[in-house]
Write a structure and sequence with these properties.
With 130 residues, the chain is mainly α. The protein has one domain: Globin-like (Orthogonal Bundle), CATH 1.10.490. Helix content is 73%, strand content 0%. It is built from seven helices and no strands. Helix 5 (68-77) packs across helix 7. The radius of gyration is 14 Å and the shape is globular. The model has no long low-confidence stretch (mean pLDDT 97). It binds protoporphyrin IX containing FE (HEM). The site of protoporphyrin IX containing FE has 19 residues, from helix 3, helix 4, helix 5, helix 6 and helix 7.
């Protein structure tokens, strides 16, 4: 199976429980006080749903779909809007992989590499719009 199919299926297993997104934000916000502060006034239940969709968009773009929605995320996260520091994206990626490891019973080191490979173009695009 190619990396995008492996990741698509892994994400399907992760999304079965909303706890995946609860844990993701716990890990992500634990990575720095500055990141936690950014979500102080956020409706986290809504944010978890938005993120579910955002990760799916990254996977679909890796499978060849239009990147229009990711370009919109690049715009909302850039210096003129949320002003998300480029170095924070590695915390985001690490938190996501940690959460996948916890939630996907079929997790392996190979699957982790597939996730990193599949996430890279989408993260580069959003971060690159800074
Ligand atoms: C909002 C996805 C990285 C902070 C959002 C939204 C999505 C999203 C789908 C809601 C739509 C929008 O407002 O445009 C992603 C993805 C990321 C990423 C896919 C990684 C590639 C980050 C990072 C931070 C961050 C690194 C750092 C703190 C925020 C904030 C909001 C937001 C503060 C607005 C929350 C609010 O409405 O109160 N993100 N994000 N994001 N994201 Fe991200």
């Amino acid at each position: 199976m190619n990396p995008t199919d492996l990741v698509f299926q892994s994400y399907g297993r992760c999304c079965r429980k909303d706890q995946f997104f609860v844990d993701f934000y716990d890990f992500f916000m634990a990575s720095s006080d500055a990141i936690r502060a950014r979500f102080q006034d956020t409706d986290m239940a809504a944010q978890r749903h938005l993120l579910r969709n955002g990760v799916m968009q990254i996977i679909l773009v890796a499978r060849g779909m239009s990147d229009r929605k990711l370009r919109d995320l690049g715009e909302s996260h850039n210096r003129h809007n949320y002003n998300i520091q480029p170095e924070w994206y590695s915390f985001w990626e690490d938190a996501l992989l940690k959460t996948v490891r916890v939630h996907d019973p079929e997790f392996t080191p190979e699957l982790r590499d597939a996730w990193r490979q599949v996430l890279k173009p989408g993260i580069d695009l959003i971060r690159g719009a800074y």
